[in-house]
Design goal:
By secondary structure, this protein is an alpha+beta fold. The chain is 42% helix and 12% strand. The protein has 3 helices and 3 strands. Helix 1 (4-28) packs across helix 3.
């Protein structure tokens, strides 16, 4: 039986293989999206980042660098998987609004 660390490494390797195959499709479409992530410190001291435009996609790591290391590839894989399953991919920023308030 594999430990959780082995499972995570195997899962990451599989994700990276899929990304390499699917990134070619993104590049060939000559379309690039820029999504905003909300970065927060986790209760355990690590970091997480969620993207309101891409439900269920959460990045995590012990440090911000670790969390963001493979972010581009992970987002590309997420978008490709959603497209493959027939879901419409939200345009970046669809779920954001900026609200100005007077400075204190």
């Amino acid at each position: 039986m594999h430990g959780s660390k082995d499972l995570a490494i195997g899962t990451l390797a599989n994700i990276q293989k899929k990304i390499r195959r699917n990134v070619e499709t993104l590049v060939s479409d000559k379309t690039e999206f820029e999504y905003t992530f909300v970065i927060e410190r986790s209760e355990d001291g690590g970091w997480s980042a969620a993207c309101p435009d891409l439900p269920g996609l959460v990045l995590a790591g012990d440090t911000q660098v670790e969390m963001l290391k493979d972010a581009r590839e992970i987002v590309a894989d997420y978008v490709m998987e959603m497209t493959k399953r027939g879901f419409e991919i939200p345009q970046p920023g669809e779920h954001f609004v900026k609200i100005a308030v007077p400075a204190a």
